[in-house]
Amino acid sequence: MRVAEVMTAKVVTVTPDTTLKEAARLMLQRGVGGLPVVDSEDKPVGILTEADFVSREAARGRRTRHRLLDLMLNRRQPEMATAELVGEAMTSELVVTQQDALVSAAARVMIERAVTRLPVVDEAGRLVGVVSRTDVLRVFARSDEEIKGDVEGMLSTVLGRDEPEAVTVSVIGGVVELTGDVDSRRDAVVLAAVVGRLNGVVRVDNHLIWQVDERRPGSPWAPYPQEGSKDLSLE
């Protein structure tokens, strides 16, 4: 599934010249925890979050000697204490994702960068939406019926119209069980791997049986017929 399919497209934005008071009003009014900051071309230049407001209030309460030390060490809190515009308080080290990126890839970026939302941009770098952790959770909360439909559709595409009936699919709690017959051991391994990448799949229990084990040296089905060869991906 692509980011464009789960992102929020109607995004409330601000500019660096927006006042913090106006930004706070928008966040409360729209019930959002962050606002993308865009320039005149709708390209994101930063993001303003609830955490930025908390940092500002915390900085205002610090004792003077601590604030002077922060300033000497080039820390951000003293600037936050007197910030009045979004451009002075926003997080400018922006992490974005493309609208055609996989949701799983966006999720990895969120975890690696410890952020809860990502601005989504098009090929020209313009903001087209925002994807949040909640959006990602919706993908993994898909029903067993939806997941089963995706698996069966994938099998129909991979195996052909006449053969999917040879494989039986059951899904309980996101765990997919595959049973039935396929031509080769490689088919069984590849099918299970592809199913495991579908959105919402927790685990694949692969009980498929095969007619030919192409790991056998000299097998006419083997892509590597030399004696003693071994394909570790099929272990």
Word description of this protein:
The protein is α/β, with parallel strands linked by helices. The chain has 2 domains: 3-138, CBS-domain; 144-234, Histidine-containing Protein, Chain: A, CATH 3.30.1340.30. Helix content is 37%, strand content 21%. It contains 9 helices and 8 strands. The longest helix has 16 residues, at 144-159. The protein is elongated and about 70 Å long.
CATH class of the largest domain: Alpha Beta
Strand order of the largest sheet: 3-4-5
> CATH topology of the largest domain, which one?
CBS-domain
Radius of gyration, taken over Cα atoms and rounded to an integer in Å: 26 Å
What is the CATH homology-level superfamily of the largest domain? CBS-domain
How many helices does DSSP assign? 9
Share of β-strand residues: 15-25%
- The strand count comes to 8
* Spatial separation of the terminal alpha carbons: 29 Å
**What is the N-to-C order of secondary-structure elements (H for helix, E for strand)?**
HEEHHHHEHEEHHEEHE
The tally of domains stands at 2
Q: What would you call the shape?
A: elongated
Brief synopsis:
The protein has helices at residues 20-30, 50-60, 64-72, 77-82, 86-89, 103-113, 133-140, 144-159, 185-196; strands spanning 34-38, 44-49, 97-98, 117-121, 127-132, 167-172, 175-184, 203-212. The protein is of the alpha/beta class. The chain folds into 2 domains: 3-138, CBS-domain; 144-234, Histidine-containing Protein, Chain: A.
